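tool=predict chain=A
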Amino acid sequence: MTTEAPATTRTVDGRLVPAVGHWTLDPSHSRIEFIARHLMVTKVRGAFKDFSGSFDVAEDPTASTLSVDVDLISVDTGAEDRDNHLRSPDFFDLENHPQMTFRSTGLSPAGDAWKLSGDLTIKGVTKPVTLDMEFLGVAADPWGNAKAAFSAIGEIAREDFGVTWNVPLEGGGVLVSKKIKIEIEAQAVMATDEG
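tool=predict ok
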């Protein structure tokens, strides 16, 4: 006798959404990245390598909740000196604030996508942010694990979080942009009742 695998997606109000339950981020197949402007013209990209997160999908998708913790020591921009500067009191101040956190406060439909609202905390300062999020569906890996995929983008003003270090440029402008773009690609696995 075989048992059918539980459904991992469903349709609510004409939208494909994940199945109700607890889902955990898979860090090895997820990325949390940021983009800043350097010298007002060049894009500098970075990522956080160590993070954890989970979300609970509710019967009503808009009542779902998400929680993410990021270890700021794992910042990686491809330049060791720059990464160490980002870890210093000029930027993240790891000695006093080793983590960045996001706690969702709301989820609402927006066209074919979603608006994910939440409280972002950096350097002990908590501010509301909203991300444009897309649910990309669920696929099974070669070992039969169902993986839900999402992407999200947004923008924050770093000075709102007390990250104010900068250098004025002779020709006008500043060395590091005040606006920081956030790009997230995430995979998550659904918790099972086994064990």
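The chain has one helix and 13 strands. Residues 1-5 have pLDDT under 50 and may be disordered.
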